[in-house]
Design goal:
By secondary structure, this protein is an all-alpha fold. Helices cover 56% and strands 0% of the residues. The chain has 4 helices and no strands. The protein is globular.
Length: 68
């Protein structure tokens, strides 16, 4: 939660879960990978929510993208 706040992002359960996943997995996951990992625990999560969270994180400098 603090990391999101430091980057000017309002925390939500879904955003904290997505950021938590990114911080605990040192791979470069896709939206589908993140969704598959988190959706069993967060029934309200959608792929659109994951996509929007990642875009928000990028816009605020909380994450970087990897273009291959």
């Amino acid at each position: 939660m603090n990391y999101l706040l430091q980057h000017g992002i309002r925390p939500s359960i879904q955003r904290m879960a997505v950021m938590g996943y990114l911080m605990n997995h040192q791979n470069h996951p896709t939206v589908d990978v993140i969704y598959a990992a988190l959706s069993p625990q967060i029934r309200t999560l959608s792929k659109t929510t994951v996509y929007n969270a990642l875009n928000l994180f990028y816009e605020h400098g909380a994450v970087a993208t990897l273009d291959i």
